[in-house]
Amino acid sequence: MKNLNRRSFLGAAGSAAALFLAACGGGSSDSGATDAGTDAAAPAGKYLGVMLGTNVMSLDTDLATDGDSFEVIADCIDGLMQMDADGAAIPGLAESYDLSEDGCTYTFHLRDAQWTNGTPVTANDFVFAWRRICQNAGEYAYMMDEIGNIKGAAAIIAGEQSDTTTLAVNATDDKTLVVELEVPVSFFPSLMYFPTFYPINEEFYNSLEDGTYGTSPDTFLSCGAFQLEDYLPGTANLSVKKNEGYWDAARVQLPGISYQVVGSSDSALTAFKNGSLDVVMISGSQVKAAEDDAELSQNLKVTGAGYMWYLSFSQTEKNAQGGMLANQNLRLAISNSLDRESLVDNYVMDGSLATYTAVPPQFAASATTGEDFSNDQAKFADFIGYRPEEAQKYFEDAKKELGVDTFEFTIIYGNNEGDEVAKVAQAIKEQVEGNLAGVTLNLQGMTKAERLDKMQNDNYDVALTRWGPDYADPMTYLGMWITNNSNNYGFWSNAEYDQLIADCTTGAYINDYDARWAALYDAETLVMQEAVIAPLYTKANANLISAGAEGIEFHPVALNRVYKSATLA
């Protein structure tokens, strides 16, 4: 059996210690949490209290788009594969799989497992769920065709084929799932622990009213380590309890997890200190305060969050003064006027890494050399950095090309995505306006959901946004900027880039790993040369974790936190 190993997210993070990694959030319910920072034994039935950073809007794998939602879904449903502590793909609902000689056909052999309504998990549960993902063509459907390269997926997602049975995913019997790919995908097994590829019980789903799946414990079935106990979409609290019928129930020691959305670092620190939450994230000055506190410093773990913050520029005539940001020199001017080291040192302050590449560091390593794809953060020094003089040169060229001397754009950002986000937005405004006389940047805060809606509907100038890796390969970032990709929010288009990515996914380099790796670097070079985005920093999370809470697995990719082996002393 072949497993794709993931590289652990490690690296220096200043005084806050080596980068580990963490997920987007957690929460608390009436079940309570341990007393923060103590070694006292937890009462029987004590739930682990975990902070969430944003509200969980959906537990439908077709609709969920954020790490918090994926975490809760993964608490409750297993994929064909799961992650071990190091991030490697190991058996989940599939006990094993066979791979054809040409690398294009996977035959998964399912173990005995059941849903929480007592019905067995079958191969058809995967067939139904995957067909549904392709038919609905939601935000993460691209994982089926552009990334997974499942035969037949592209035509269904594009609306060219209405018959979903043409998707080459078939149940030859209840325990056997056969998946045919267009081309070999070396990391395909690791895709199987991403929630997009999870199963759904077809009979149960069809028994529900339209649009209600995953909106309450009564409309959601579990086959994973936990089952949904208390949930309403968008509320601040939710909880899951141990699934006693889980196939690996002996491994699961937590009686449950109580999640609570916490909107500020101050509130998170208070919740940890008073013992209402066991796992929280802090930022800014609270991190320094925790480091300097003899007791809190013992509970502090700075971990890589696995995603990169960057500026996205709308390049359409609909926005940005009639498409002014379609000008390459103007984008380069903005990018080179930003002091990224100052952003992380003075505003984020949680161990995040200033980033100068389109693919962030420390999550994707070469299978042949072991070298991190973005280990060299100076490789694009000719195009990006804090270079005010170069920024001014780009700006002068932009003014000549566009025939105007002044520009006014609006930056949108999420006001519920962490305390530091508004501070970073303000710092960006000050840096750009200070280095580029004639540029005015207005700030517009809104919820993350509103920000995403504006980006998805091309209703913005500049967005302070983020992207987390869904799988351990540079394509999880580089695939975003293909012409007409649903995540290409800047609407940039480059034929050479498109061809390079095609060669890496279905063409010339698909069977030559090192040539593919080199071509991905060439594609990234185009992104940086044209300042398609302005990378800012690779996020770290400064976590406070109760002394009694152990065994939480942190990962930089796909599922940031896994609780199957966690304990609460």
Backbone CA Rg? 23 Å
Distance between the termini: 36 Å
Gross geometry? globular
- Seen as an oligomer or otherwise, the chain set is single chain
Walkthrough of the structure:
It is a single chain. The chain is of the alpha+beta class. Among the domains are: about 80-110 and about 120-200, Dipeptide-binding Protein, Domain 1 (Dipeptide-binding Protein, domain 1, Alpha-Beta Complex); about 305-540, Dipeptide-binding Protein, domain 3. Helix content is about 25%, strand content about 20%. The protein has 17 helices and 22 strands. The protein has helices at about 65-75, 125-135, 140-145, 155, 190, 200-205, 265-275, 285-290, 320-325, 330-335, 340-350, 390-400, 420-435, 450-455, 475-480, 495-505, 515-530; strands spanning about 20, 50, 80-85, 90, 95-100, 105-110, 170-175, 175-180, 225-230, 235-240, 255-260, 280, 300-315, 355, 405-415, 440-445, 460-465, 535-545, 550, 555, 560, 565-569. The strands form 6 sheets. Strands 1, 12, 13, 14, 15, 16, 17 and 18 form an 8-stranded mixed sheet that branches. A 4-stranded mixed sheet has the order 2-11-10-9, with helices on one face. It has a 4-stranded antiparallel sheet with strand order 5-6-8-7, with helices on one face. Helix 10 packs antiparallel against helix 12 (about 390-400). The longest helix is centred in the C-terminal third of the chain and has 17 residues, at about 420-435. It is globular. The two termini are about 35 Å apart. Mean pLDDT is about 90; it is low at about 1-45.
